[in-house]
Amino acid sequence: MAGYFARAAVVRDFDGTFAIEDIEVSAPHGAEVLIEVRAAGLCHSDLHLASTDMGIPAPAVLGHEIAGVVREIGDRVSGIAVGDHVVATLIQYCGRCADCLSGAGHRCPNRSHTLRQPTEAPRLKQDGSPVTQIFGLGGFAELALVHENQVVRIPESIPFAQAAVMACSTLTGAGAVFNCAKLEPGQSVVVIGAGGVGLNAINAARIAGAGRIIAVDLAEDKLELARSFGATDIINASAGDPVAAVLELTGGGVDHAFEMIGLPATSLQALRMTRTGGDAYLIGLHRPGSTLQVDATADIIAPQRSLHGLYMGSSAPRRDVPRYVAQYLAGQLDLDALVAREFSLDEINEGFDLLRTGGGVARGVITSFG
Ligand SMILES: [Zn+2]
Ligand SMILES: [Zn+2]
Questions:
Q1: Helix (H, G, I), strand (E, B) or coil at 219
Q2: Which ligand is nearest to the CA of 40?
Q3: Residue 312: left if φ>0, alpha if ψ -120 to 50, beta else—which one?
Q4: Domain count within the chain
Q5: How far is the CA of 65 from the centre of ligand 1 (A)?
Q6: What spacing in Å lies between the alpha carbon of 247 and ligand 1's midpoint?
Q7: Is the pLDDT score of 355 beyond 60?
Q8: Following DSSP, what letter does each residue of 322-369 receive, concatenated?
Q9: Maximum Cα–Cα distance across the chain
Q10: 82 and 187 share a domain?
Q11: Closest by Cα among 235, 240, 228 to 250
């Protein structure tokens, strides 16, 4: 079966830069879906992967939050048709194991089930050699060839850029609130880091009926944005000890604390901002080897606190994406303000430069690929 040529942003040296090159994308077979990418979000994880040699074979196509239109499907795909609008996510699961069958596909040990076998032709090639497709997705390209388990249909009424942002930052941030914390009305929340994931957690806490929603960040513009997403209180951590500020505001700490940054200091702050019996959730990616120095008695045992490590908001995309689409269409989930700026594929380096320097961006999204 013939394949296709597609323009893609390719990473070669893991120096944080992307080159626009042609790649060959194989035609779909089996459970694969070929997607014409219409929007791909620029995420901090991509920046991290593009700037750090983590042993990923080069060349590689990154990009893990996309929306687009189905161009072609393999002969075992069901429930997805050519022309459907879809999102694709990085959550890879087999759909058959005990974890998957209990609704915990985010814990699936068989993630490679969604990939081609080593004996098969690679999905992506360049001059006859394989190209790495990150998370079985490779979204920074005109075409993405993805296993159907990673694909969810969406209505045509949601714009592609908003849908792409939902595929990563909403699943992660709102999922932490709905799926992991199972927030109850009236409970109090602190979110450290008001980027795309943090704003989604704040928005979800508002939808879930949280009493107090406290946003902590160093950037005043992000904190102001956090207010419009539902934060009832904002704390600029550069102005003093944010733990003391949260304890004072809440009279002893919050029920749930979410850490979105991935630093030991802010992770410990999250834990120490919770009340007796409270829960802290680590969501931001830490550097390899990063350690937390916890006082076992004072931080954990005496206050009866729990510390949770989360992956992708414990999301099941086919269960959760329709919920977020409905909330967006009902005006409850603000995805429009999350799409801060749109770029073309050729401007990808500029987009990541802005992300690197803060730049006030909630989220940059690539929306033109030609
Ligand atoms: Zn992401
Ligand atoms: Zn599984």
A1: coil
A2: 1
A3: left
A4: 2
A5: 6
A6: 31
A7: yes
A8: HHHHHHHHTT-S--GGG--EEEEGGGHHHHHHHHHT-TT-S-EEEEE-
A9: 66
A10: no
A11: 235
**Does residue 220 lie within any of the structural domains?**
yes
Query: Would 50 be classed as within a structural domain?
Result: yes
What residues make up the domain containing 195? 169-313
Distance 54 CA to ligand 1 centre (A): 17
Question: Domain for residue 329, yes or no?
Answer: no
Q: Give the closest residue to 321 by CA, choosing from 196, 131, 111, 162.
A: 162
Q: Residue 360 falls within a domain, yes or no?
A: yes
For the residues 154-169, what does the mean pLDDT come to? 96
Residues 189 and 277 in one domain: yes
- Which pLDDT belongs to residue 1? 53
What is the SS3 assignment for 228? helix
Q: How many CB atoms lie within 10 A of CB 199?
A: 31
- CATH number of domain containing 48: 3.90.180.10
DSSP code at position 12: S
- Residue 197 C-alpha to ligand 1 middle, in angstroms? 9
Does residue 127 share a domain with residue 14? yes
Question: Cα–Cα distance between 59 and 126 in angstroms, integer?
Answer: 9
Which ligand neighbours the alpha carbon of 49 most closely?
1
Report the separation in Å between the CA atom of 105 and the middle of ligand 2, taken as the mean of its atom positions: 6
Would you state the pLDDT for residue 359?
A: 58
Please tell me what DSSP assigns to residue 235. Answer: E
Global pTM reads 0.94
Least distant ligand from the CA of 197: 1
Q: How remote is the CA of residue 317 from the centroid of ligand 2, in Å?
A: 14
Query: In this structure, which ligand is nearest to the CA of 95?
Result: 2
Tens digits of per-residue pLDDT, 120-134? 999 999 999 999 999
